[in-house]
Amino acid sequence: MSTQVFETLESNVRSYSRSFPALFNKAKGSHLYTANGDAYIDFLMGAGALNYGHNNEYIKQQLLAYMAEDNIMQGLDLFTVAKSEFITAFNDLLLKPKGLEYKFQFCGPTGTNAIEAALKLARNYTKRSNVIAFMGAYHGLSQGSLALTSNQYHRQVAGVGLHNVTFLPFENNGPAGFDSLAYLELMLEDTHSGIEKPAAVILETVQAEGGVNVASPEWLRGLKQICEKHGILFIADDIQIGCGRSGDFFSFEEAGIKPDIVVLSKSLSGYGLPMAMLLLKPELDIWQPGEHNGTFRGYQLAFIGAKAALEFRRDTGLEAAVKQKASYIERFLKEELAAADERIVIRGRGLMWGIDLSSFEDPLLAKKVAQQSFQDKLIVECVGRHDKVVKLLPALTIEQETLDQALNILQRHITANISSGASAKKVHA
């Protein structure tokens, strides 16, 4: 089979297939398989939609059993058994034990749909239009969420002005010594700041597409305190770093804060099925019937998969396993890889890590590493400013042997490229 049909008939907007030009057919666990049987280690994992691995066996069996009984597949927002069981399980297994009280709003079917709902609700509740977002943020590409997304490459094709958003530097991403929280406080208190009091502040606790930039617990707590002081809603975008990827199910748990609105999608369904929802504090639920909807907010298979994912997480001790693997990866990246060259910067949390190669003279170094890794049967993407950060996003269920294999591939190609670059510079001199 050929990839010519895609070159001929699929839109130029396609993206990942340009970096990984193979014809994929099957997948299991941490591996993708091409039509001719080649196995690739997957460190992309559906851009974070497959935390539990490809075709997780436990979740798959729950889905097959549900379908075998001719149960309802599409329910809009009707009352259904599948939705009832998911809400109950999520509340009992996650929210109650963590002391969280939220109402559920189902959006459909992707993360950007839920971001749009969060924005609409925050503005309607506060009667204010401005929103604070952060440089390096990625919240989606539909019109409202695009206004929150900082990448100029994405923003330039909007076709209309992107307004009602004020951007601030993320923690440690501004000028040396710049305190973004102090600046935010100044903006809010100075009557001559020229900035409208915002309806909400929205952020990813770990900016994924922005270069794996990690907010500290202290910084998050400070931001939440400012929001509470000024009556500003705090929206946590947990679309990619949530659902267990940080180690905890919610990425904000480590900071001990309780966002006003939490946005979830990607791995929420457990199986790569489209599903998105908001968790909102009860007092924020001022919606009137039908004010916000979406045809696929009632995709029943997603509810079945999401409930099964919570059970799988509980029954396999996944949280402890993720934290153990996170420590292992951090040690390897910092002690085995970065120790070889001080220009290599490592950032990450849980099972999301970034190898920042932006300090090297070669502006394409990270892309070269990703391309060479793909030739060695490892799928890994580049993110951040000018795609200079190699982003590691393995399955939470990855086996140790597979993890070691992937890390060794990355180390080999980074080391080889750094060495060849240094040799070339020496010869030129």
Automatic annotation (TrEMBL):
Q: Which domain of life is it from?
A: Bacteria
Where does this protein act, in terms of pathway? Answer: Amine and polyamine biosynthesis; ectoine biosynthesis; L-ectoine from L-aspartate 4-semialdehyde: step 1/3
A GO molecular function for this record? diaminobutyrate-pyruvate transaminase activity
Q: Name one GO biological process term.
A: ectoine biosynthetic process
State the protein's name: Diaminobutyrate--2-oxoglutarate transaminase
Task: Cite the entry's keywords alphabetically.
Answer: Aminotransferase, Pyridoxal phosphate, Transferase
Q: Species name for this entry?
A: Chitinophaga flava
Database matches in PANTHER family: DIAMINOBUTYRATE--2-OXOGLUTARATE AMINOTRANSFERASE, DIAMINOBUTYRATE--2-OXOGLUTARATE TRANSAMINASE
Q: Which InterPro entries match?
A: Aminotrans_3 (IPR005814), Aminotrans_3_PPA_site (IPR049704), Dat (IPR004637), Ectoine_EctB (IPR012773), PyrdxlP-dep_Trfase (IPR015424), PyrdxlP-dep_Trfase_major (IPR015421), PyrdxlP-dep_Trfase_small (IPR015422)
Question: What SUPFAM superfamilies does the record tag this protein with?
Answer: PLP-dependent transferases (SSF53383)
User: Which NCBIfam families does this one have?
Assistant: dat (TIGR00709), ectoine_ectB (TIGR02407), PRK09264.1 (NF006733)
- As recorded in UniProt, its EC number(s) are 2.6.1.76
Identify the cofactor(s).
pyridoxal 5'-phosphate
Q: Which family does it belong to?
A: Belongs to the class-III pyridoxal-phosphate-dependent aminotransferase family.
